[in-house]
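Reviewers of the previous submission asked for a worked example of the structure-prediction workflow described in the proposal, so we include one complete record here. The input consisted solely of the amino acid sequence. No template or homolog information was supplied to the procedure at any stage.
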Amino acid sequence: MAYLTRKRIKGISYYYAEESEWRNGRSKRIWQKYLGPLSKIIAAIEGTPHKPEYAEIFQLGGPAAYWNIIEEFNMTEVIDSVFPKREQGLSIGFYLLLAAVNRGIEAVSKRSMWKWFQDTIFLRMFPEIDKPSLSSQRFWDNMTAIKEDKILSAWMKVVDYVLDRENIDLSCASFDGTNFYSFIGSFNMRCSVAKRGKNKQGRKDLRQINYALFCTRKDHFPLYFDVFEGNRHDSKEFGVVIEKFFYAFKHRKPNNEGMTLVFDKGNNSEENLNQFLFDSGYHFVGSVKPDDHKDLALISNSDKRFISLSNPRLEQVKAFRTSKKIYGKDMTVVVTFNNNLYTSQIKSINNEINKCLGKLSKLSMKLADRSDGKITKGKKPTVESVKKQVSSILSGQHMKKLIGTEVTEYKDVPVLSYDLKGETYATLADTYLGKNIIITDNHNWSTDEIILTYRSQYVIEDVFKQMKDRKTGTWWPMFHWTDQKIKVHGLYCSLSLLIRALIMKRVQESGIPISMNNLHDKLAGIREVLNVFPNGKKKPATQSIVSKMDKVQKRIFDLFKMKHYLPS
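From that input alone, the workflow returned the following C-alpha cells.
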C-alpha cells in the first residue's frame, strides 16, 4: 500500500508518495515519487493547472498513416534487400520511403527535407536522425548508389510482397501514360530522358519526361510503372512496356479468364494488339477512333439499334453490339451514345465555332481595311499567307469541316469569305458527337460489363490528376537532371502512390466514406501538441496531447494505430 512521507529541507516541507515491502526481515522501498510542497498538492487537488512555458506542434496524422502502412508491409527491409549498403547512416530503403511519405503529404525539395521532417512526429520517432543526415547531399549520395537496372526489381519486390499479403483484385487493370514538364536546360547533355514533345499541359517549350502506369480497377493499386523519353509516342512505348508488364506478372494468374487490360485509343496498332494473342493470358478493352470506322460512326444517334441499358450507372447511355474484324482480329464491338457526353461536346464545339468565327471576322475586316487604304503599313498579305492564317484559326477538331472558307483576290489584296455549314453541323451532331466505339476480345462479357470496364479508365486518369496536383501531388518539385536520378524519382513517387492506395483501401474497408482529398485534409488536421513545462534547472517536463478531432478523425486515428506513435 502506498503512503506519504515528508522531508524538511531548509525549513520547508516536501512530500513524497512511496511504497515499501518486507524483504529478508527488513523494510525495503519499492518506489518513490516526488509530489512537491503542500501548496503544489493543494493546487493539483483543486484543479489549478500548471501553465506550460510553451508548446510544440507536430504533424501526426499523415506521417503516422503512411508509416503504419510501411511497417505493416516491411517496405524498408524489402527495399534494402535489393539495395544493400554498409551499416553506415540511414539505409537506402529508409531514404526512399521517407521521400515517398513526403511526396504523399507535402512534397518539398531535398534541400527542405529537414525543415519538413522536424515538424513531424518523425523527429521523436527517429532520434538518431539529425540535420546533416537529411541534407540534399546525403539524399543524392544514396540515390546515386541505386543501380538503374535494379529500380524495377525493387518495385516489383515491394508489389509482390503486398500482393502476397493483401487481397487485391487483379482481374482488371488500366494502362495509360502521361508526361511531366521539367526545367532541364536544352543543352544539358547528361539527360536523354527529358525531351521535347506534345506536352499534355501545354508546355511544349520545355523538355518533358514520359511516365506510364498500370493500375487496378478496384483499389487503384499501382502495379507497374515506367519512365521513358519525353518524345516517344504512347503507341510505340505501349508495345515495349506491355511486354515488360507481362514478364513481371507472368507468375500471377488472377483467375481462369486472365487479366483484362483497359487502354485508350492512342495505344492502338495491329502490332500492339497482337501481343494479346498466342495465349498470353491477358485480354483487353479499348476503343477506336470514329474516323477509322465511319461505317459505325455515321450511324444516326437516333437509330433504333441503340437501346437503353439496365445498369443504374449507365442511365444516360444507349448502346448496340456487333462484331467486326479489326487489325485482322475478330472483335466484339460496342457502340455507345452518352447523352451527358453529347451535351458536353456540343457546348465545346459551339464555343470553338464562336472563337473561330470571331477570329475570321477580325482577319476579314483587316483585309478589307487594307483594300480600302485604311491600312498601309506592315507587310502586304498574300493569298498563301492568308490561307495559312485561316488554317491555323481552324486547327481545332472538326472546325475545317464545319466552317467553309474561300480566299480570293481583289485589287491585289486577298479577300476572305466564310460561312458555317449547317448541314455538316447537323450531320456531325447526329453521328459523331456523344459516341464511343469500344472493342474487346472478351466475347462472353455482357454489354454493360464491357462499357463499365472501359469507363474504369478514369481511375488512372484520376491518379495522374492527383500526381500533378500542386497541393497533394507526388511528382513536383523535381530537381534532377540525369536519367538515373529521374528514374529513382519515378520510383519513390510510385511508392507514394502505392502507400496512398493502401491507406485508401484500409479507409474504405473500415466503412469511412471519404475521398482522397478529404482524407488528406483530415490527416493534416490531426496534430500532436507537446506542452513543455519549466522544471527549474532540470530538463523541462513535457506533456503530449492530440489536437481536437472530429468523429471521422477519431476513427482514422484508431484505424492507423496512431497512439502507438505517441509517447507512452
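The mean pLDDT is 89. We consider this example representative of the routine output the project will generate in years two and three.
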